[in-house]
Amino acid sequence: MTTVRDFLKVKGHQVWSVSPYTPLKEALRIMAEHKIGALLVLEENQVAGIFSERDYARGVVENPAIDLETPVRELMSSPVYYVTPNQSVDEVMALMTAKHFRHLPVIEDDKLVGVISIGDVVKSVIHEKEEVIKDLEETIWVHFV
Predict the structure, then answer these.
(1) Pairing state between β 46-52 and 103-108
(2) What is the pTM of this model?
(3) Rounded Cα–Cα distance for residues 21 and 2 (Å)
(4) 81 — phi, psi (to 5°)?
(5) Could you tell me which of 17, 45, 42, 15 has the C-alpha nearest to residue 114?
(6) 50 with 105: CB under 8 angstroms?
């Protein structure tokens, strides 16, 4: 069974983040530069929120007074759900599906150790299915040849 720890071994532990006081313009620039859909919002090395493309799109529509100098804290999602390195792909997928999350921080011993996305989960599930198919094909080949 694949775990979050397995994701991080492949993906790495890189986390892109901003402070709650970062202007939207800077947060959006970082997201565009790194081709990512969300940033963790950290305050005193603790996860205070997540700021995503979705937060920006909805926030601007709901509040036309929002401008690019508005701090991220005005639009970030909070409180933040998280996962641990020992959780399984199935657990993560269930949480992401139930709560409509696309990104989750990974916390171990009260420390941020990474971020996983729905794309990471989908890649893992596809890889596991491909391995099962390969094993089944090999079994069939051995038994019927």
Answers:
(1) unpaired
(2) 0.83
(3) 37
(4) -80, 155
(5) 15
(6) yes
